[in-house]
Amino acid sequence: MNILDKITADKRNEVNLRKSLIPHKQLEQSVLFERTTISLANNLRNSKSGIIAEHKRRSPSKAIINQSLNVQDVAKGYENAGVCGMSVLTDGKYFGGALDDLLIARASCNLPLLRKEFIIDEYQLLEAKAYGADVILLIAAILTRDEIKKLSQFAKRLNLDVLLEVHNEEELQKSIMPSLDMLGVNNRNLKTFDVSLETSKTLSALIPDDFVKVSESGISNIEAIKTLQPYGYQGFLIGENFMKTDNPGESASQFIKKLEQ
Ligand SMILES: O=P(O)(O)OC[C@@H](O)[C@@H](O)c1c[nH]c2ccccc12
Fold it and tell me: Which InterPro entries is this protein grouped with (predicted)?
């Protein structure tokens, strides 16, 4: 079994237990269900830099990245840096995140927040909304076209933006549909952890223009972004490069200043 299959199998068990703990009716009663969401896709369309900065403590490919920060400082730092949105990893077992991280980020800043999670069930979209997310991630590698359709349409009904992530042409072809807002190309193969920006370059021409194009993972310098912009990318998802430092907000701030020079 590859790591992605393992993560997904664990996630199914976790979601079933969560459902038994907090019924969906209770999630719908969250005050955050009434909140007007902010569109990350719009922010990206109107931005020069297009940075989406991630909160990520550890990952299966990198073990520990940073365990000593708190979400509040990171969220405020990213907001002050002028990023377009923040991605918050909520998976506990493999990434050391939690749904509460999303809630703390929501309480700390006004950025559009992406729930970075392995989503396989509509229940997780209710959680995303109840804990303050504006955007959800759908990973084509773990979903059928039918599942992508159901989940993305449900997300749109909750006024959440949808970022669909692909890693190859087959995943892209099966996923294109009007209920998606952003198409993300993951430069990291989630099965092998190999990273190559070539993936973003190759797939860019196949993404229809009505979707905001986002390049994800392995971006560690301005040059990478300058290289990808001519391919039509307007969003750049960066985790480790900021999170490995003592002050991710300050790192993001310097990065954006350089980029906008
Ligand atoms: O830390 P990086 O290499 O900058 O990558 C960030 C983000 O793209 C990565 O965390 C990610 C992209 N897609 C995912 C899906 C699940 C978990 C994590 C991810």
Answer: Aldolase_TIM, Indole-3-glycerol_P_synth, Indole-3-glycerol_P_synth_dom, RibuloseP-bd_barrel
* Ligand 1 atom index nearest CA of 65: 1
- Amino acid found at 117: E
* pTM of the complete model: 0.97
250 given a catalytic annotation: no
Owning domain of residue 36: 3-260
The structural domain count of the chain equals 1
Q: Which CATH number goes with the domain that contains 221?
A: 3.20.20.70
Atom of ligand 1 nearest to the CA of 216: 8
Q: Which residue has the tokens 């480790």?
A: 240
* Distance from chain centroid for Cα 172: 17
> Is the distance from the beta carbon of residue 234 to the nearest atom of ligand 1 less than 6 Å?
no
Residue 2 annotated among the catalytic residues of the structure: no
pLDDT of residue 261: 86
Q: Is the pLDDT of residue 68 over 90?
A: no
240 flagged as catalytic = no
* Phi, psi angle pair for 14, to nearest 5°: -60, -45
ipTM: 0.99
52/203 Cα distance (integer angstroms): 20
Q: What CA–CA distance (Å, rounded) separates 246 from 54? A: 14
Mean pLDDT of 182-202: 94
Round to whole Å and give the CA distance between 40 and 83. Answer: 11
Ligand 1 close to Cβ of residue 181 (< 6 A): no
The residues, any chain, with a CB within 8 Å of residue 124's CB and separated by 6 or more, are 15, 115, 117, 136
CA distance 69 to 82: 20
DSSP H stretches of helix in 51-94: 71-81
